[in-house]
Design a protein that fits this description.
Elements: H1 7-16, E1 37-42, H2 46-61, E2 65-66, E3 75-80, H3 85-108, E4 113-118, H4 119-123, H5 125-130, E5 137-139, H6 147-155, E6 160-162, E7 185-189, E8 191-192, H7 203-207, E9 211-212, H8 215-227, E10 232-236, E11 244-245, E12 274-275, H9 276-284, E13 291-295, H10 322-328, E14 335-337, H11 345-351, H12 357-370, E15 375-382, H13 389-402, E16 406-411, H14 419-423, H15 430-453, E17 459-467, E18 474-478, E19 484-488, E20 491-492, E21 502-503, E22 509-517, E23 521-530, H16 532-537
Parallel strand pairs: 1-2, 1-3, 3-4, 4-5, 5-6, 7-10, 10-13, 14-15, 15-16, 19-23
Antiparallel strand pairs: 8-9, 11-12, 17-18, 17-22, 18-19, 20-21, 22-23
Helix pairs in contact: 13-15
Length: 539
């Protein structure tokens, strides 16, 4: 994800409460000499990476310049996460550092302005504004358009805040400014908010209700990225496969799709609109050399039935559903995120996930039957309210049975406003949570190593992202399953046999024969440079 940084890095960063790395920024064309300089720092999930690009697009249009040097900034904005307590603690700690910087700046020249944006701003507005009077601006996820006004108020020495949640804000008309020049991958936000109301989750309270961008605006953004040379796009949302574009009148009376077998939801089915399968179909047609990923889906929203919406006079009456599209389209990655959260039906009920262990496993089998060789990832929470040792062992056994390629595992962190905070007791001791989490991580790594070992000897198509972090003589990229692949940087033939041998560059596709595997990384030897279409045709 270097046009949005690496997905796993950011999810690990959310757990560790660390900011994303400061991107390398080219000089902004047409920047105004003497324009106020803004420094943006991103914490947490990939949605925050996307939000950072939206914030910068808004500020750039309003006369701000971007800096990657903290000490040069006139305005420092932290895009924050509230999913776990540890991420919030990191922000408070960061603010103490900025307090000292702000004090020094007051004595030297024009005052420094500090802003807290995103989910933590939404959750803790009053505390942020009143704690040591350090923060000048507070803006929730739906208030970024208001940032120029808020910063103008702050310039007069007053604190300014807007944390109003919206029922319709999607920033559809704002084309994000990519934060990495020449990046090979990018995020495209397709919807905001979440209606699922899982009992542990703060997202509906910090990001509001679900609303989807018009498909036309998403296609415009993906086309722009393709024209810029981006080779992989990840469609983003809290619950992407409940996407529902209501912008076109003729589709507003379409019946709601069914849920996955054995799944339920706390809200009524929502009729009308163009669904995620329509979006995925259209996005995959833009550029045959651009990989398409999406995250995060909810397991309940993978219905088996074909859609009955007719997109145009020339389109088929039945559009393939999501799993069929993944299987059929060579540029939709054969990789799926299926967040389980727990392997215990009793705990899943307490979490209000809307499925049993058995229903989840049936879906996994259906996915693997539909998409041979699919790579699976998942999320798990250790030590949720009331979790017994038997519940925990059922999660361990689910990890073994499914054998995920990628996993995101965290200890439970109680969040105010959630249903769990109001109705349940956070009764699993911290040391027990820690032990259970360690066991889940160890089990995941053991099974992921086995899953990845099955790829040894196979050729994998790798999208090159750049040099390996550990060795300048090696390149790093990801395969179709989103697993990191490391291989030597060497002269390579072009599979088309129309170009001279040369070294692979970021954005190139390289066929790599896997020689070794661990739980997180594949290593191999490069065979040739190729294209996405040519590699698909040869299989």
């Amino acid at each position: 994800l270097p046009a949005g940084p690496d997905l796993r890095h950011f999810l690990r960063a959310a757990a560790a409460g660390q900011p994303g790395p400061s991107p390398e920024l080219p000089p902004e064309p047409g920047s105004i000499p003497g324009a106020p300089k803004v420094y943006l720092e991103t914490y947490g999930c990939q949605m925050n990476v996307s939000d950072t690009e939206i914030v910068w697009a808004i500020l750039q249009k309003n006369g701000y310049a971007r800096t990657k040097e903290l000490n040069e900034a006139d305005v420092i904005l932290l895009v924050t996460c509230s999913v776990r307590e540890k991420a919030e603690q990191a922000i408070w700690k960061r603010l103490q550092h900025l307090k000292a910087l702000k004090g020094r700046r007051r004595q030297a020249r024009a005052p420094l302005r500090v802003g807290i944006l995103g989910c933590m701003a939404e959750r803790l507005k009053e505390e942020i504004l009143h704690r040591e009077k350090l923060v000048d601006v507070v803006a929730g996820p739906d208030a970024y358009r208001d940032l120029p006004r808020l910063l103008a108020v702050a310039e007069s020495g007053q604190q300014a805040a807007n944390v109003l949640l919206s029922l319709d804000e999607t920033y559809a008309d704002i084309l994000p400014v990519q934060t990495s020049a020449g990046g090979t991958t990018a995020f495209v936000s397709i919807m905001r908010g979440c209606d699922n109301m899982c009992s542990y989750c703060i997202v509906p309270f910090t990001r509001g209700r679900e609303r989807s961008r018009p498909i036309a605006s998403i296609l415009q953004e993906v086309k722009m990225l393709s024209d810029q040379g981006v080779k992989e796009v990840t469609l983003l949302g809290q619950n992407v496969n409940s996407f529902r574009d209501l912008s076109e009148v003729q589709f507003q009376s379409v019946a709601a799709p069914g849920l996955s077998r054995g799944f339920s939801t706390v809200y009524k089915a929502k009729p009308g609109g163009l669904r995620f399968s329509h979006l995925l179909d259209q996005v995959s047609r833009i550029d045959p050399e651009m990989r398409i990923r999406f995250t995060s889906p909810h397991p309940k929203d993978f219905p088996d039935e074909a859609s009955t919406v007719k997109l145009s006079e020339t389109s088929p009456d039945h559009l393939p559903q999501v799993l069929q599209l993944i299987q059929e389209r060579h540029n939709i990655c054969k990789q799926l995120h299926l967040p389980a959260q727990s392997g215990s039906t009793r705990v899943l009920e307490a979490m209000r996930r809307g499925y049993t262990r058995e229903a989840y496993l049936e879906l996994v089998h259906h996915v693997r039957d539909s998409i041979p060789g699919v790579s699976l990832s998942s999320d798990f929470i250790a030590g949720f309210c009331g979790e017994t040792e038997e519940d925990h062992l059922q999660t361990v056994s689910l990890l073994r049975e499914v054998r995920y390629n990628v996993g995101f595992l965290f200890a439970y962190s109680m969040r105010q406003k959630t249903r769990a905070h109001h109705r349940l007791q956070d009764d699993v001791p911290t040391d027990v949570k820690k032990r259970r989490l360690e066991q889940l991580i160890a089990t995941f790594r053991e099974e992921a190593a086995r899953a990845n070992a099955a790829l040894v000897g196979q050729a994998q198509l790798v999208l090159v992202e750049g040099p390996s972090k550990r060795s300048a003589s090696e390149l790093c990229g990801r395969n179709d399953g989103n697993i990191k692949v490391i291989f030597p940087d060497a002269e390579l033939e072009d599979a088309a046999e129309c170009g001279a041998p040369g070294r692979a560059q970021p954005g190139d596709y390289v066929m790599v024969k896997v020689t070794s595997a661990s739980s997180q990384t594949l290593r191999g030897v490069p065979l040739c440079r190729t294209t996405l279409s040519r590699a698909a045709a040869s299989h």
